[in-house]
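Consider today's protein:

***
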Amino acid sequence: MFYKKFLFVIVVLLSGCKGFVIPDEFVYKEIETNTFKLASWQKVANPKGKFKVYIEGDGASFDAYGRPTNNPTPRGKLLREIAFNDYNENVIYLARPCQFVKDEMCAQRHWTTARFAPEVINASYEAIKSVAKDNKVILVGFSGGAQVAGLVSVAKKGINVVKLVTIGGNLDHFSWTEYHNLPSLNESMSLTDYKNEYMKIPQIHYIGSKDDVIPSKLVYDFVDDENLVKVVNGATHNSGFEVIYPLIWKE
């Protein structure tokens, strides 16, 4: 049983990182939580310093025909590319539950209707807390990872979040499913329930001018402050953000 699980993890890691060079200073670690086991790559040079945690998007939740997949490991490498080139002392790339590594808790609902369910948010919270402890934390959330970043900041207490950065962020999944005429994520928590507290945290939101997945209007409508939104000309949902990499690294 252990051997089969080990082979599964290796295959998933290789498929998820094919053609992608991971710097030597980043160490792969699986973080055990009370619910899920989360995959992470960690560079920790100063355990008492500020941590920057990159939270992955929803990954390969559905196939080209709109059917739920059996493996939500992301194929796109946008967030990993930014994280693995971040020159700061403490950088963590944190996958979402069931990405790269599966455990007995994983079910399709955890990357579809329940992608932001309490057990999912709790796992991400526990993972970040276990690594960063009481140190200052900057959370960088891509796509659905922006919802996770927000919820672990305000729905849970204990992470010392000093700034939120989103890239193509899904901040209001109710508006998002309505916009695309998709089924509601009815098993998920919602950042809209914590909006007042969320808006008190320093934040910046990057969105692509050609992003058809998360149109800029949805982000503008949620934050209701154009100074907090930066539109990246020519960027789509998964590419074209290279111009802002240095801005994110500088945070």
